[in-house]
Amino acid sequence: MKNIKGSISNLNFWCMASSIIFAFFVCPYYFYPYKVPFLRKPCRIFNLSAVIMSITMLFESRSSMIVRNIFRIKTTAHRFIWILLNILWFMAIILLPAFNLSDQMETKMFVLKTCPCPPTEFFTEKLLSMAKEGFWAAYMNASALVIFLTLTIQGVFFTCCCIFYLFISTSSHVSPQTRRLQVRAIYGVVIETTISILLILIPFSIFLSTRSDGNYDQMQNNLMNMTICVQSGVTSAFILLVHHPYRSFVKSIIFCKKMNKISPTALVVSDTFINT
């Protein structure tokens, strides 16, 4: 259970960090659809990847708790290697365009052709142009899609393992109470992650559909980043509301009630029972 608790805490931490970064650092400083953000862009990329990776880790922890799962990660060292490999290949894909940056002044002039009145920060702050157009712009869009699909496939795989061993391949070695708790836990994980993903996919899809005319609108960009802030906050809230221990803790704070402490009980077994 420590792995699941750690994964939930990790996801909650990165959701809060994402909300803070998007609300106070990134929101006014991104000129979509151009890859011309402020120098805080690397922090934004890392933060988004950390949230997605945390969701994947949550499903992995739930899957690895099933002892009969032949695909479970058994040791902490193996889990560390799995996380490290995901981070390394992600950083390798994202940082590759940094070795072939376009001319910064030329890119600014290119942006001004279709965005003649950008915010004041466009001229006063330092910008980093990752890609103007052509191959590298398409590469960055494709790399983001590949990263999202790869992490999604891993999450779906771990979910399928949980479904198979909890609902299809049942075992008599697991008590009904234990199975009920395991099923309730996987329901909670699926609910909190599904709602979190829908809250970002639906607004993002609507946002992209309004970009078909090619016109620039800074307000739409800011609204999109604000949506991500709300999504991160809702994810943190569902972590507290879906899982019973966290929900009980929140209720105890709101209603000023003391949580019931479970007193240890001793089980006495007679010698005659042991010898039989």
From TrEMBL:
InterPro entries: 7TM_GPCR_serpentine_rcpt_Srh, Nematode_rcpt-like_serp_H. This is G-protein coupled receptors family 1 profile domain-containing protein. Keywords: Membrane, Transmembrane, Transmembrane helix. Pfam families: 7TM_GPCR_Srh (PF10318). It comes from Caenorhabditis latens. PANTHER family: SERPENTINE RECEPTOR, SERPENTINE RECEPTOR, CLASS H-RELATED. The chain crosses the membrane at residues 12-32, 44-59, 80-99, 136-168, 189-208, 223-242. The keyword ATP-binding does not apply.
